[in-house]
Write a structure and sequence with these properties.
Blueprint: H1 6-9, H2 14-21, H3 27-32, E1 48-51, E2 58-63, E3 74-80, E4 86-93, H4 121-129, H5 144-157, E5 162-165, H6 170-178, E6 182-185, H7 187-196, H8 202-206, H9 222-230, E7 242-246
Parallel strand pairs: 4-5
Antiparallel strand pairs: 1-2, 2-3, 3-4, 5-7, 6-7
């Protein structure tokens, strides 16, 4: 039986669902952590968790490099658009050997939704100082290029030639731009951000060191801009930005007008 949507895949048997969704996982990830094709450890315990109930139009995937580890090396949350296209809500690659920063939880254990619902400021400050971007609990794996290729192969096998993504933070949108994504919505906001971080723009004037996230260097740094935006420098959250990409479209490196990481 074939399926062209997340909702359609979720109606298949457990074995069929696993076989289809595992195509999303980049081969380089399996090689790096010496994971077998069954995605199980030597005791036979599954390292892949799937949330994809029949009747649901979304899937959450968590792949661990070892059983019982706190964080997955790969996490993906996908859903169907209203017209049956694939939409990435969240895509994370974690280096399990790197230090962990609890930006996703408060000291009392409450979830922060990666800092979008509430913020663990101390953890965020430590993450910032360690070179991470907003929302990162660990360093990445540096395999986004091969991960993109694997994902586009998955999209193609479902019969699609494009897909959508929801950048959770400003720096995500810039990364997506560089990988060939265009804006379905939010381009006006991105142009406003560029203007306000240029010359004597409104955000430049607020980079006064009043918090660790509002340093003058943020004017020319994508990473630091993203932290300042996460800190509320725009006067509104970074939301309502949706991007799309044609499968196979080449990357675009001429973005951001000279800003660096």
């Amino acid at each position: 039986m074939s399926a062209s949507t997340i909702g359609g895949i979720n109606l298949l048997s457990e074995h069929e669902k696993k076989e289809i969704y595992r195509r999303i996982i980049p081969g380089e990830l399996l090689e790096r952590f010496k994971l077998n094709p069954y995605l199980a450890d030597i005791q036979g315990r599954s390292l892949l968790n799937l949330k994809c109930k029949p009747g649901s139009t979304s899937v959450e995937m968590s792949l661990f490099h070892e059983h019982g580890f706190r964080d997955p090396v790969f996490y993906g949350h996908l859903t169907d658009t209203m017209n049956g296209q694939i939409h990435i809500l969240l895509y994370i690659l974690n280096d399990p050997a790197s230090p962990r920063f609890d930006v996703d939880i408060m000291p009392n254990g409450q979830a922060t939704q990666f800092g979008t619902s509430q913020r663990n400021i101390e953890a965020e400050q430590n993450a910032l100082q360690s070179g991470l971007t907003p929302g990162q609990i660990r360093s990445g794996l540096g395999i986004l290029s091969t991960a993109t290729t694997a994902f586009e192969n998955f999209v193609e096998t479902l019969g699609h030639d494009m897909y959508f993504a929801e950048p959770l933070y400003y720096h995500n949108a810039i990364i997506f731009e560089r990988y060939g994504f265009a804006y379905q919505s939010g381009k006006k906001l991105m142009k406003r951000i560029q203007a306000e971080f240029t010359g004597d723009g409104a955000c430049v004037k607020k980079l006064d060191g009043s918090s660790a996230f509002r340093q003058p260097e943020a004017q020319k740094s994508i990473r630091l801009r993203s932290w300042a935006i996460h800190d509320g420098i725009l006067g509104e959250p970074f939301t309502n930005v949706t991007m799309y990409k044609r499968v196979g479209k080449s990357a675009n490196i001429n973005t951001s007008e000279g800003t660096h990481w």
